[in-house]
Amino acid sequence: MTTACREHTGHDHAHGPGCGHVAVPHGDHVDYAHDGHLHAAHGEHYDECEVGGHQEHGSHDHVHGENCGHVAVPHGDHVDYVHDGHRHAAHGEHYDEH
Known about the structure:
The protein is mostly beta strands. Helix content is 0%, strand content 54%.
């Protein structure tokens, strides 16, 4: 699985605790859901980082959806759910890890 990062230009909002956007733990940092994608602080700017490829989350018995108890994160044309420290996205009959 690869990660593609590109600078998010024209971003004048500072993300952090209490900024009003959903915080998503992501490895050694926190991403913030904003404008349908995730922003990650990178030096003096923010990056949009997207996981490339396809990594299925194995043995996932929980069904995500409205009122499932997990934070919903709008992500492009679908919704991811924060679960077990990462994001799950429905993909056919299984969930992918983002």
